[in-house]
Amino acid sequence: MTTEERARKCTAPETERIYPEIPGYGRSLGRKREAWHVGYTSPNARQCECGAFPVFEQYTMDYGPEGERNVPATEFVAICPSCERRAKGSGSIEYCLDMWNRRIMSRDSMRVQERPADFDTEACVALSGRLIRDAMEEAIRLVKRRWEIDRQLANPLLSDVRRELLYTEFKSLRHHLNEMNKVFYGPITMDRDGDAIISKIRQKLYPTLKPEERITIPLRLERMKEWKTK
């Protein structure tokens, strides 16, 4: 791999790194009002009862031994990006495709298919927007608190008792930020793109950086470290 290719890979959107191209499968990586999920597609997948075709999206608990989401994805769920019918279980793409084509569906996803005639989609979109704004403010607060703890932990004169308390809080913050990543890539965002949301958070956290400097910071809340000028 050339230096240019490595640089392009590092700056590629998060979804492209999670779902790199693989033989025999397509990709649907853009969220929109009528398609709230992203992932791989298959020409061999049966059409959903609503008329759409499923995507094979990364399982929410697809984490490595160090507690970070696997990139690329290694475990998937088969889900309709339109009505959210979902095949039962999680696993490889081949397993999920088989479950989907055999119509072995998640009981919970089938329970929510019946919507009242007066279901207000626009109200749901508005509520989603407010929840996202509140979550973004909370994420910014937690990231800045983590920076503050990092600075305190760097103090060599810090007492052992104080250091232990701060380190405990640091681990808790890291866990919460890790969980907040899931929120911004989950169904609550509806037609909004998770990368775009976290990119906006990154802009607010690093307002003085140039665009080429900002894109070197990962779109992962728990990995956004305080920028120190040289």
How would you describe this structure in keywords?
230 residues; mainly alpha; Glutathione S-transferase Yfyf (Class Pi), Chain A, domain 2; 2 domains; two-stranded antiparallel ribbon; disordered N terminus
Descriptive overview:
The chain is mainly alpha-helical and 230 residues long. It is 44% helix and 6% strand. It has helices at 3-10, 14-18, 93-101, 107-111, 121-153, 160-184, 194-205, 211-214; strands spanning 26-28, 39-41, 55-58, 76-79. The strands form 2 sheets. A two-stranded antiparallel ribbon has the order 1-2.
Summarize the entry for a quick read.
The protein has 230 residues and is mostly helical.
Number of helices: 8
Euclidean distance between termini CA atoms? 30 Å
Average pLDDT number: 85
Strand count: 4
Percent helix, as a range, is 40-55%
Helix/strand class? mainly alpha
**CA-based gyration radius:** 20 Å
List the helices and strands and how they pair.
Layout: H1 3-10, H2 14-18, E1 26-28, E2 39-41, E3 55-58, E4 76-79, H3 93-101, H4 107-111, H5 121-153, H6 160-184, H7 194-205, H8 211-214
Antiparallel strand pairs: 1-2, 3-4
Helix pairs in contact: 5-6, 5-7
